[in-house]
Design a protein that fits this description.
single chain, 419 residues, alpha/beta, Quinone Oxidoreductase, Chain A, domain 1, 2 domains, eight-stranded mixed sheet, 16 strands, disordered N terminus, disordered C terminus, binds NADP nicotinamide-adenine-dinucleotide phosphate
């Protein structure tokens, strides 16, 4: 792996905020320097554990590609990492982020297939939220000219996970039906689009009500996430569904398995329900695990049901699944070129706005994917007033930063329930 740059110890978020406030352009002109901006997670916990800091730039090792980052994907998993709400969390401080897009700036030895100047998107095993990253070439993919950098940063995690679950794990075919939770989110929208590439597939989705108008067209039937979706699905399809995609581990396993038709597949791929506030709640964690249904394999055999689990990052980083993932990315890029799929970007945020961006996911506000746009300057204060914005404004006032009233909220493309 690349040698990570040493953190500049005396640099603090506050100092960077002040510097940027004095001279907004300095945020984007680190190109000639040996330093770069990066988001740092200083310890597990709330939003206050995130700051933007300066680090020395990494240099590519053998088999690695150095990328000048343009955009980074913000995933639900990043919230869980921040809280330390994952198995075997790495040590902090760390630079979060699992995917980015940008331009190849240099290559280590043995990096055939890439050239300086190539437009690429990449998976990272952490460290993606920085101006420059180095990552093994097995996790880097060239992107088509027509794909924007934010789209590319919204592509890999959501579409690869959705594709592999639908087509590799559960063999989606014409005429089948699929149930997906959080249908308005990054993965949810990728699932909906991929289902529409197969004739006559029925998609049942759940989502917060305020999103319904915006995403109704993308699924066949949409339910409020708070209603008894099992009863609603049964009213429409008494025999159940062929595929259940469950990212709410614990709450839904029994319901999901119960909804399957014979030979149907239930896939567990997330545990969003374990996030119940800004910091990890041991009570909720214990409750969630306690609620996880005990599945009897003999019952699966008797009822002709398939139960599966899927973790893209484990496949990629721990189980040597690079070539399977690469093949999937190529198939997805073909679908993109044929205009059958298109990543949905919810909003763009400067690195310095990472807390506000994360708060938007906590607030269930996003439709599609949140992107950290490395070249974006923080937006002036004022337009929106969410709890985070208000707290930040108050803090800034207290600290007498003066009238540098120009940071805060990201560029939004959809309605915000908290405004
Ligand atoms: N296994 C894998 O390989 C893999 C890969 C990617 C993602 N995932 C998992 O897939 C799920 C979706 O990921 P994503 O990145 O696309 O995120 P996302 O769906 O965009 O996440 C945000 C949405 O999740 C819903 N949600 C459910 N529980 C929530 C909670 N406790 N707090 C806030 N929002 C909650 C909300 O939508 P509604 O209010 O509309 O329900 C919210 O808008 C996550 O569980 C993630 O870990 C797994």
């Amino acid at each position: 792996m690349a040698k990570e740059g040493l953190e500049m110890t005396e640099e603090t978020e506050h100092m960077i905020e002040k510097n940027v406030a004095k001279e907004p352009d300095s945020a984007v002109c680190a190109a000639d320097s040996k330093e770069m901006r990066a988001v740092l997670l200083t310890g597990f916990g709330g939003l206050n554990k995130l700051k933007v800091t300066k680090k020395l730039m990494p240099e590519p090792q053998e088999g690695e590609v150095k990328i000048r980052v343009k955009a980074c994907g913000l995933n639900f998993l990043d919230l869980m990492v921040r809280q330390g709400n994952i198995d075997n969390p790495p040590k902090t401080p760390l630079v979060p982020g699992f995917e980015c897009s940008g331009i190849v700036e240099a290559m280590g030895e043995n990096t055939k297939g890439f050239e300086i100047g190539d437009r690429v998107m990449a998976f990272m095993n952490y460290n993606a939220w920085a101006e420059v990253v180095c990552t093994p070439l097995d996790w880097v993919y060239k992107i088509p000219d027509e794909m924007t950098f934010p789209e590319a940063a919204a592509f890999c995690m959501n579409f690869v996970a959705a594709y592999m679950m639908l087509f590799e794990v559960s063999n989606l075919r014409e005429g089948m039906s699929v149930l997906v939770h959080s249908a308005g989110g990054g993965v949810g929208q990728a699932v909906a689009q991929l289902c529409s590439t197969v004739p006559n597939v029925t998609v049942f989705g759940t989502a917060s009500p305020f999103k319904h108008e915006a995403i109704r067209h993308s699924v066949t039937y949409l339910f409020d996430r708070n209603v008894d979706y099992v009863a609603e699905v049964r009213k429409i399809s008494p025999e159940g569904v062929d595929i259940v995609l469950d990212c709410l581990c614990g709450e839904n396993t029994g319901k999901g398995l119960g909804l399957l038709k014979p030979l149907g597949t239930y896939i567990l791929y997330g545990s969003s329900n374990m996030v119940t506030g800004e910091t990890k709640s041991f009570f909720s964690l214990a409750k969630s695990w306690w609620q996880v249904e005990k599945v009897n394999p003999i019952k699966l055999y008797e009822e002709n049901k398939v139960m599966a689990g899927f973790s893209l990052l484990n496949l990629l980083f721990k189980q040597g699944g690079c070539s399977q993932v690469k093949t999937t990315v190529q198939k997805l890029l073909s679908l993109y070129s044929e205009k059958k799929i298109k990543p949905i970007v919810d909003s763009l945020w400067a690195l310095e706005e990472v807390k506000e961006a994360m708060q938007r996911i906590h607030d269930r506000g996003n439709i599609g994917k949140l992107i950290l746009d490395v070249e974006k300057s923080p937006t002036p204060l004022g337009a929106l007033s969410t709890p985070v914005h208000r707290a930040k404004k108050k803090k800034q006032k207290k600290e007498k930063i003066g009238d540098s009233d120009w940071r805060i909220t990201g560029q939004r493309f959809h309605g915000d329930p908290t405004s």
